[in-house]
What we know:
Elements lengths: L2 E5 L10 E5 L8 E3 L4 E3 L3 E6 L7 E8 L7 E8 L3 E5 L3 E10 L8 E7 L12 E3 L4 E3 L4 E5 L7 E8 L6 E7 L3 E4 L5 E10 L4 E11 L8 E4 L4 E3 L4 E6 L7 E9 L4 E5 L5 E4 L4 E11 L4 E3 L3 E5 L2
Parallel strand pairs: 4-10, 12-18, 20-27
Antiparallel strand pairs: 1-2, 3-5, 5-8, 6-7, 6-9, 9-10, 11-13, 13-16, 14-15, 14-17, 17-18, 19-21, 21-24, 22-23, 22-25, 25-26, 25-27
Amino acid sequence: MRTRILLLPCLALAACSDIIETDLSGFGVVLLTPADGYETNSNVVTFKWEAVPHATEYHLQIARPNFDQPVQFVADTVFANAGIQFPLQPGSYVWRVQARNGNSATNYYQRALTVVPASSLDDLLPVLTAPAANAVTAAEPVTFHWQALAGADDYRFELRNNDPTGALVQAQITATTQMSMTGLTEGIYAWGVQGHNSTSSSLFSYRTFRIDRTAPTAPLLVTPAANATIPNTTLTFQWQSGTDTGALVDSLFVTDVNTVTIRALAPTGTTHTDSLGPGTFHWYVRSTDAAGNGTGATPRTLTVQP
């Protein structure tokens, strides 16, 4: 196994250190499933491979009919997991995977795959599109979308509390590929779709999501103090985030006396160091949750001396 050493420039008053990252060019990607030449009538195919030591991500490509003269790239995506489920229409495909880290990559490893038309809905799986899996939303109404399933005449839509085995909230048959619901209270739900025709039914596809319409509490501004006057030098904004049931993103806003925004950023952490120059300014912080609910602190005035 070879290693590459990346040397980063030294920062002032900081110690230098070498970052050693494993070179993946000597590794291979062991593809697990589907087997080479595999034929299936399923509309959703599970691709799996063995995790590669020291890899941080994988590049999956799926093309039809081949990579030498591709008519279509069905997938060209990078993600962290050693496997993914992907919907495919009937046809001949090739797929390949490359493992990567920040410094190197393996070769691509490739297999062929054929999806044949299904004679019934029995082994098919509806492809849900929105809301995304584990989404958090404040929308009203909540609108659900899924892809049309070949051979299906209509669909059974289900909404359940908490998970796919939870209490049934709503069930409805529809010939369309979307459903909207109003009046849903805050909480966790699972929504599912099953395709039907006169002779067969598909499997159920389910996703969970959470409705959150409660805004976080306002952040607490710490420094500079309200109506502070400070010299024209660097200053540090500091605050405490609002509180909420989930993760929050804090945004710092600074405006001049004419309410023109001169800073609008989302710092990492709860401090930000800046230099504004002379003048009078207003600043505040807004905490926003995953559903987009947000609350801003009462702005403070700040004067920077000439």
